[in-house]
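pinging the channel bc i need a second pair of eyes. not urgent but kinda urgent?? the chain im working w is below, pasted from the shared doc
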Amino acid sequence: MKTLPADFIKYTQALMGDKLYHQLEQGILEVEPPVSIRLNPFKCKEGEDAEGEPIPWCPATGRYLSARPNFTFDPLLHTGKYYVQEASSMFVDLVIRQLVHHPVMMLDLCAAPGGKSTAVRAALPEGSLLFSNEPMRTRSQILAENIQKFGHPDMIVTNNYPRDYKKSKLQFDVILTDVPCSGEGMFRKDDGAIEEWSLQNVDNCWHLQREIVADIWNCLKPGGILIYSTCTFNAHEDEENIAWICEELGAEPIALQDIEDSWNITGNLLNQENTGNLEASDAISNLKASDIPVYRFLPGKTRGEGIFLAVLRKEGEAESDSKKKENKKEKKRKDKKGNKAKAPEIPKGWLKEEDSFTSITQEDAKENALYAIPSTWKDTYETAKQNLKVMHAGIKLATSKGKDWIPDQSLALSIALNPETFPQVELSYEDAIRYLRKEAVNLPADTPKGYVLVTYHNIPLGWEKNIGNRANNLYPQEWKIKSTHVPEEQRLIK
């Protein structure tokens, strides 16, 4: 039986009042977490849906499931057709769709493992570019994997700290800061979060969160939008930090529209009568934290895990569309002046709309790798490459071996892939699992020699090289299913 920390109980009960606190406590200790997924709209056919109940703040793609499948053994997960994400985190879909109506450049600053990044990219207008960043190296590798499975080419994955972005001089229209926190919203799912919690950790976190926002603030354009979120409940890391951002950095809170009462989202907790004895941070003076619109998801009340979110706008005027067009023209002029040695051309027929992509090469894991990036943001990529640790950008097409180009897993999973260029073999469920374990898979006798695209439910899964008497499995070693368990067939999405 879980036991919540005494200091957490004392503070949270004072903050929320008895009724709301006991609802939260019951949700953490007694209620099973809901199971939810989010469909990848770029890999679903028009009109295609999944079993399950729509998530009200993400109705187009978010689904509650009635039971938890063994996701690892669903090949459709590995194709990137859906992402396993808890429902509360999908609230960013609503934020983006309400506030972003033209192509933008956006940064997800603390993005691993990639749930919010893929949700954001699905909601952004086409023509947008999303930087997806993770400071921790091992987590950034997981992030890069999930971004490649998602398959959208207008994404760049980096492994940097906020101060690195500050030095890069890159400017963003929207920045999502899902900042490290004390993790109170994870108590239901993770017993370790309870064990690690302390008042000292809360104190450390709200200081760190302010440092992160201050470091990245100059990268947000005037008039730009900052989305601040945590997975914790206390006001120090939530309302008080938002008030500090408003007062110290000159941000203006934004109230979201069309929030239904039935969603059971909790507003500002400092606006409750019973919180009069709580002390606010010393940084709060002219602006009261209680005046700020915020959105808090509480287990036991909302059907999801615990998160907090607020939206802020930076002072100043946003850049007009006409000014953006002028800047793009100027950048094109600069590109023409500074031509570098050309990378090998993108192999003919590999990509849809291949004329809209530019090829680049880079040393990747001691291999010479060929990438394709949308030409519209080539200059932005060059700036990023000079100043940041780029883990992935656009589409990794292939790695060279002698005169041969070996097609990459990123290409197989990209929505820009032209599958008709390659021989294709549809795998059964059993063979798909063997493939994902990087085991040998027998191809039909009439399969042409060379690189073969293997599919599951007609969605690309990866590559095999057919050499006649056998086929080499090219699935990435680091991505393979390690379990030897033999599951029954699962079809989560129909």
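so Confidence is low (pLDDT under 50) at residues 280-287, 329-339. and The domain at 6-34+86-314 is CATH 3.40.50.150 (Rossmann fold). — does that match what u expected or am i reading it wrong
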